[in-house]
Amino acid sequence: QSPGDTVWAFKLGGRLQQVPPPTAPPVMQTFEGRGVIARTNQIVIDFAERDKDTIRPLGFRIDEYETFEPRRVEVPAGTRVTWKNTGHDPHTISVRGQRWTTGPIKPDATGSIQFDMPGTYVFSCENHPWQQGEITVGR
Question: Of the residues 3, 29, 120, 124, which has the maximum number of CB atoms within 10 A of its CB?
Answer without folding.
Answer: 124
